[in-house]
């Protein structure tokens, strides 16, 4: 018993497209064979010239698009086959043709077949001329072309002279190209030829109807022939249209009356309806589940799903597809509707959760090592798209609407390490001794107990459920961090002991000081100060409305990363100055007798601050900033205290006077990234020079203070400045 395709059918005509599908199978065809792929074959009208071959799924429609130019009486033969070859015994296919309004679209006079338009040229009688026409709706038809001589004046075309007719002109692929080699015969028919004659044509179909261009039935205005004979020979008119067959445009599509066109999901955001198209006219033809992501609170939020063009009345399945939209919640609750369906969704983050730390990265549950989404399944099925009713059409992923904010800071205002050498006894030495002692105590406390005079700032905050729930951590982690830092200090000490650093006292400051001979100097190195601040949350993608992305910003800072200063005792150098040194010695002795403490120092300082800022988590925009500060500070201070004895009263008194002069440069550099590319931006500022004088006095309970600032040189920002794109 024969098997295979018995016949095909025309399903519908949409515009100029004809949809074809398998209609009947031969009796010997078994069900597994009916599910095999089908080879579609398109031939010319004589069934001999192959124009297209393609292999499709058994339920795909073969679409042959016949444009108006190819529409007409010409027919294309289409056949479907399981073997991949045309059936040699049976005509199992169909002839397909296109329909369109009959029209002459363009016309021209040429000197060769399908040549350039020569209507601006002048011919002579006896010349060969070619008429070219392009038509619609008449492919394969035979037409009559009539030639007319224009008579100026009169009653329009009614007075024009009929010259000749060219019958049975075949339209091939919408074109006519006629060789007219008998123009001398035209001349004979003209009684009173003018200096130049003008000729045009009319086109008549088999029924005798004249074909227009949509407005006029006159075409090819005008062929100009001057009153001159170049040849008295005549040739029989012939059709010079190339005997070729233009291929129609062929495509395919899954065609079933049981279908839908578009799936749209919509939701409200701040009183605005946000619509997302998840499926449109077969653009994702595969039956893979479509994904739609959304952000939801702990309480219910509504989502509406529409299936435009849904109709299942002509379903071809044994178990008919229902004309319904269904949504199933994670708990198994079913919502369904025959029209648009609105159903509630919520996130997996409960409003009763007291510690949502597992949602620290909102799209994932770190404790379960999986996505944090609640999954809702939408079922919309038809024969054309998503026929498998056991598989969801759309999977809605509802992520928590949690937003995180983090702030952390650690540092110390005390020096990490301080060393001095060759300091003369007195106020200067005493001040540096106290400062160094305090720094040493701080390091000891940190290394032994994990506690020290460092500052901590920690705050991690989350809000969710439409900002109705809040979670915050801070102080309870401070001791943990202190102990954590203490571990690092102990590790450093173990390394120092293992490398004999402590035994030789070979610190950075000591190595620098060891090279200084008889110079009264102090060196200080400070702790780095670290800060982290950031916020992150989920937001609908700007490039794909069916997705949500993590958005936010993150800033890391070391302010400072490096900070150090060196102080020089200028009183030591003043004593070395000839003559003036003798005076200073006398004043120094007098100051000690009177209890005066004097300090005169020059300090050089420098620091480097580094911050990194990321404006989104796709790293499209980011900055890395370097800021420095290098300068000098001159300080002169005097301090005296004592007791005043008088006949009337007795009181303690204090007197302090300080004068400082400071000047520094601030170099800055930024390596950044923006929409244009990666750039380097640099700038140097100068503080200028100013002197600050402060005098404080106290006698008993009476206090007084005097402060005055003298600007010697004004501040100058952007001494140098520039921005250069490294990569664009």
Low-pLDDT segments, ≥5 res: 495-504
CA radius of gyration is 48 Å
Structural class: mainly beta
Name the helicity range: 10-25%
Q: Please give the alpha-carbon distance between the first and last residues.
A: 71 Å
Number of strands: 42
Q: Major sheet, described briefly?
A: 14 strands, antiparallel
- Mean of all residue-level pLDDT scores: 81
Outline? elongated
- Proportion of beta-strand residues: over 45%
Number of helical segments with 4 or more residues: 8
What report would you give on this structure?
This protein is mostly beta strands and 728 residues long. The strands form eight sheets. Strands 29, 30, 31, 32, 33, 34, 35, 36, 37, 38, 39, 40, 41 and 42 form a 14-stranded antiparallel beta sheet that branches. Strands 9-15-14-11-12 form a five-stranded mixed beta sheet. α3 packs across α4. The longest helix is centred in the middle third of the chain and has 23 residues, at 427-449. It is elongated.
Q: Which features characterize this protein?
A:
mainly beta, 728 residues, 14-stranded antiparallel beta sheet, 12% helix
How are the SSEs ordered, and which strands pair?
Blueprint: E1 5-14, E2 17-25, H1 31-34, E3 38-43, E4 50-56, E5 60-65, E6 76-81, E7 94-96, E8 103-110, E9 122-125, E10 129-136, E11 142-149, E12 161-170, E13 175-180, H2 183-189, E14 196-204, E15 219-229, E16 238-239, E17 249-254, E18 262-269, E19 272-280, E20 290-296, E21 301-308, E22 325-328, E23 334-337, E24 341-345, E25 364-365, E26 370-371, E27 374-379, E28 394-400, E29 403-411, E30 415-421, H3 427-449, E31 455-464, E32 469-473, H4 478-498, H5 501-504, H6 508-513, E33 521-526, E34 530-540, E35 548-569, H7 570-574, H8 580-594, E36 597-614, E37 622-645, E38 650-674, E39 677-686, E40 689-699, E41 702-713, E42 716-727
Parallel strand pairs: 9-15, 20-28
Antiparallel strand pairs: 1-2, 2-5, 3-4, 3-6, 5-17, 6-7, 8-10, 10-13, 11-12, 11-14, 13-16, 14-15, 18-19, 18-21, 21-24, 22-23, 22-27, 25-26, 27-28, 29-31, 29-34, 30-33, 31-32, 33-35, 34-35, 35-36, 36-37, 37-38, 38-39, 38-40, 39-42, 40-41
Helix pairs in contact: 3-4
């Amino acid at each position: 018993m024969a098997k295979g395709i018995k016949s095909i059918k025309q399903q519908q005509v949409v515009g100029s497209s004809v949809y074809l599908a398998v209609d009947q199978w031969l009796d010997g065809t078994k069900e597994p064979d009916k599910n095999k792929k089908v080879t579609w074959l398109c031939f010319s009208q004589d069934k001999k010239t192959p124009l297209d071959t393609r292999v499709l799924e058994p339920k795909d429609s073969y679409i042959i698009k016949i444009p108006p130019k190819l529409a007409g009486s010409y027919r294309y033969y289409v056949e479907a086959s399981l073997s991949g070859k045309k059936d040699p015994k049976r005509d199992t296919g169909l002839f397909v043709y296109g329909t369109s309004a009959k029209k002459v679209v363009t016309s021209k006079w040429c000197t060769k077949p399908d040549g350039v338009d020569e209507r601006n040229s002048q011919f002579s009688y006896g010349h060969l001329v070619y008429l070219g026409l392009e038509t619609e709706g008449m492919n394969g038809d035979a037409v009559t072309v009539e030639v007319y001589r224009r008579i100026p004046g009169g009653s329009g075309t009614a007075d024009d002279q009929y010259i000749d007719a060219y019958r049975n002109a075949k339209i091939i692929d919408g074109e006519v190209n006629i060789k007219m080699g008998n123009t001398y015969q035209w001349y004979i028919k003209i009684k009173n030829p003018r200096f130049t004659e003008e000729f045009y044509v009319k086109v008549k179909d088999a029924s005798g109807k004249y074909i227009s261009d949509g407005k006029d039935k006159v075409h090819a205005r005008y062929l100009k022939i001057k009153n001159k004979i170049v040849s008295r020979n005549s040739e029989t008119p012939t059709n010079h249209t190339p005997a070729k067959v233009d291929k129609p445009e062929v495509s395919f599509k899954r065609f079933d009356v049981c279908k839908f066109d578009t799936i749209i999901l919509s939701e409200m955001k701040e009183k605005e309806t946000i619509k997302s198209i998840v499926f449109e006219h077969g653009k994702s033809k595969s039956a893979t589940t479509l994904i739609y992501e959304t952000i939801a609170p702990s309480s219910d939020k509504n989502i509406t799903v529409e299936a435009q063009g849904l109709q299942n009345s002509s379903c071809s399945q044994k178990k008919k597809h229902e004309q319904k939209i269904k949504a199933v919640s994670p708990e198994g609750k079913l919502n369904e509707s025959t029209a648009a369906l609105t159903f509630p969704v919520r996130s997996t983050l409960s409003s009763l959760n007291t510690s949502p730390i597992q949602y620290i990265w909102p799209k994932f549950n770190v404790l379960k090592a999986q996505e944090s989404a609640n999954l809702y399944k939408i079922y919309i099925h038809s024969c054309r798209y998503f026929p498998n009713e056991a598989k969801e059409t759309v999977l809605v992923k509802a992520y928590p609407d949690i937003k995180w904010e983090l702030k952390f800071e650690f540092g110390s205002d005390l020096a990490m390490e301080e060393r001095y050498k060759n300091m003369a006894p007195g106020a200067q030495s005493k001040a540096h001794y106290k400062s160094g002692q305090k720094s040493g105590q701080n390091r000891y406390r940190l290394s032994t107990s994990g506690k020290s005079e460092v500052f901590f700032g920690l705050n991690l905050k989350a809000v969710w459920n439409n900002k109705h729930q809040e979670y915050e951590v801070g102080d309870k982690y401070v001791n943990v961090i202190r102990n954590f830092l203490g571990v690092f200090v102990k590790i450093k000490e173990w390394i120092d002991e293992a490398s004999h650093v402590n035994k030789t006292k070979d610190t950075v400051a000591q190595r620098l000081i060891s090279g200084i001979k008889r110079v009264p100097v102090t060196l200080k190195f400070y702790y780095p100060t670290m800060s982290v601040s950031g916020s992150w949350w989920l937001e609908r993608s700007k490039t794909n409305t069916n997705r949500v992305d993590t958005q936010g910003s993150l800033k890391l800072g070391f302010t400072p990363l490096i900070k150090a200063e060196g102080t020089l005792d200028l009183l030591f150098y003043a004593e070395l100055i000839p003559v003036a040194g003798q005076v200073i010695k006398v004043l120094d002795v007098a100051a000690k007798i009177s209890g005066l403490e004097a300090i005169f120092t020059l300090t050089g300082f420098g620091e480097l601050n580094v911050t990194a800022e990321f404006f989104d988590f796709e790293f499209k925009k980011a900055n890395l900033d370097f800021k420095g500060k290098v300068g000098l500070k001159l300080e002169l201070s005097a301090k005296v205290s004592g007791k005043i004895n008088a006949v009337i009263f007795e009181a303690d008194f204090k007197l302090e006077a300080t004068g400082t002069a400071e000047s520094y440069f601030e170099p800055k550099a930024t390596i950044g990234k923006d929409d244009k590319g990666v750039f380097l931006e640099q700038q140097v500022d100068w503080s200028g020079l100013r002197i600050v004088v402060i005098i404080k006095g106290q006698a008993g309970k009476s206090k007084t203070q005097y402060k005055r600032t003298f600007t010697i040189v004004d501040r100058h920002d952007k001494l140098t400045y520039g921005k250069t794109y490294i990569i664009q």
